[in-house]
Amino acid sequence: MTARQVALEILTKTETNHGYLNLVYMEVLKANSFSPLDAAFIKELVFGVYRNKLYLDYIIRANSSLRLKKIEPTVLNILRLGVYQILFMDKIPDHAAVSEAVSLSKKRSRGRTAGFVNAVLRSVLRSGGADLSPLKKDAVKYFSVKFSYPEELTSFFVNTFGKSRAEALLAAGNETPPLCVRVNILKTTRQELAEKLHRAGIETKETPFTDCGLYLFGASEQARREFSALFTVQDQSSQLAALSLSPEPGDTVLDLCAAPGGKTTHLAELMENCGQIYASDLYEKRLHAVNEAAKRLGITIIKTKQADAAEPNPALRQIADKVLLDVPCSGLGIIRRKPDIKYKEHITDFDEILSVQQQILNTAKEYVKPGGILVYSTCTINPSENLGRVHAFLKENPNFEMDAMKNPHITGEMAQRAKAGFIELFPDTDNSDGFFVCRLKKLR
Ligand SMILES: C[S@@+](CC[C@H](N)C(=O)[O-])C[C@H]1O[C@@H](n2cnc3c(N)ncnc32)[C@H](O)[C@@H]1O
User: Which residues bind S-adenosyl-L-methionine per the record (predicted)?
Assistant: First the structure.
């Protein structure tokens, strides 16, 4: 199969199985042996199409004799791939984008579709796309098409952050995030790993807000596998969650929403693999990933168990020095990694997720020893799931208070907030995933 055929397969599979794009992409990658160049090209195609789907559809509609609903789903995806290459990938000659799309439609579809695909793409080449200026009088409609966010979600951004900040955040959500890893300090140091990677032809840059992170440039999947005992792929924003809990060797730590274990293993590294970590998750199957990650990194202090964190467990009452709650959330901070989040139905109906977060907090508060610490974190930038959620909790639980975080790498305005007990990161200003971490101390 050619790279474009594989890309079409991934798009179709993600749509028809209601799958997650990144999981389908990884599954296809594991099942085949693509060259690093092909793997990168396929990724660019499928993530690019997802990031820009509504915009691409708008252009296809403006250049097609058929309404979108009348176009067969496979043909629509062939067109999206073609238009994406024409408008977003400078290195692909236009004639190659068109002829490859035509030959794909000959292989994958029936009848006269090849002629139709050819006509639409040639029209896109002639017109240069479509004129968005008639949409400009309505910011929500305009941003929705320009940045490919459904109108309901675009409205949420505009109402929450104002027009100009919303524009910056929507644009940042369409960027390709850098590859960031956390160094396994049980086995190496940041500098040592950077030198090893450099010798293997991979350039690195230190993360500014943490002392254990590196950005990697030019690392193929194969190279990533080669060094997998020495690092964990994790954005620097996520590294701040375990760091903010500041676990120490010998501590008893609970991680109640643990899978796939990115933060659990970080806790263990900070504890020098000494003490105990009880890691649970609602989904038993997902806990395998935690055990696998621990094995890969040489960690032995994690015990996993399936459990619903919203259900009280009296056996855990006041056993923990530290508790991490990396709760399920709307995920609005990681759209650049998972662009399919944008199109999730009812994405802005927050009531259910807010209620789960509240229940988990209310259950977990009982597990913290007096004087102990609870860290609440999310990968969203929705204020009601973040500070809103914490303030509501503190109002009902005066025996907890926000506790200053000690992180010498955080400066400026962010340091003021860390001193007050929380950190907020945004993809537009911090070149990081949108993330929220809050450190709470149980007074009595
Ligand atoms: C943000 S993810 C956790 C990511 C993880 N901490 C890491 O760093 O790799 C949230 C997790 O909460 C789990 N979850 C959802 N509802 C839950 C519940 N009621 N109790 C426990 N876990 C839950 C999900 O299965 C998911 O693995």
Answer: 257-263, 281, 308, 326
Supply the residue whose CA is at minimum distance from atom 17 of ligand 1: 282
Beta strand 252-255 with 320-326 is parallel
Ligand 1, atom nearest to 260 Cα: 9
Does 111 have pLDDT greater than 70?
no
Give the lowest-confidence range in 198-202, 244-248, 260-264: 198-202
Instruction: Return mean pLDDT, the chain.
Output: 96
Ligand 1, residues at Cβ distance < 6 Å: 238, 256-263, 281-283, 286, 308-310, 326, 328, 356
- As a whole number, mean pLDDT of residues 300-323 equals 98
Q: How much is the average pLDDT of 148-169?
A: 98
pLDDT one-digit tens code per residue, 162-191: 999 999 999 999 999 999 999 999 999 999
DSSP-assigned beta bridge partners for residue 436? 378, 424
* Residue of 180, 212, 329, 379 marked active site: 379
Beta bridge partners of 440: 374, 402
How far CA 343 is from CA of 80, 244, 279, 395, in Å, comes to 16, 32, 31, 34
Q: What pTM was estimated for this model as a whole?
A: 0.95
Instruction: Work out the number of other CB atoms within 10 angstroms of the CB of residue 329.
Output: 24
| For ligand 1, mutation pick of 245, 257, 329 (most atoms within 8 Å of CB) | 257
Q: How many residues are given for the chain? A: 444
Task: Name the residue with the closest Cα to ligand 1, atom 2.
Answer: 328
Q: CATH for 3-131, among 1.20.1740.10, 3.20.20.140, 1.10.940.10, 2.40.50.100?
A: 1.10.940.10
Annotated binding site for S-adenosyl-L-methionine, which residues?
257-263, 281, 308, 326
CATH of 236-442, picked from 3.40.50.150, 3.40.50.2000, 3.40.50.2300, 3.40.630.40, is 3.40.50.150
- Cα three-residue angle 408-409-413, rounded to 5 degrees: 95
| ipTM confidence | 1.00
Q: What is the CA(208)–ligand 1 centre distance, in A?
A: 27
Level-2 CATH architecture, domain 179-233: 2-Layer Sandwich (3.30)
Domain ranges of the chain: 3-131, 133-172, 179-233, 236-442
Predicted local confidence at residue 221, as pLDDT: 75
| Dihedral angle over CA of 340, 346, 348, 349, nearest 10 | -140
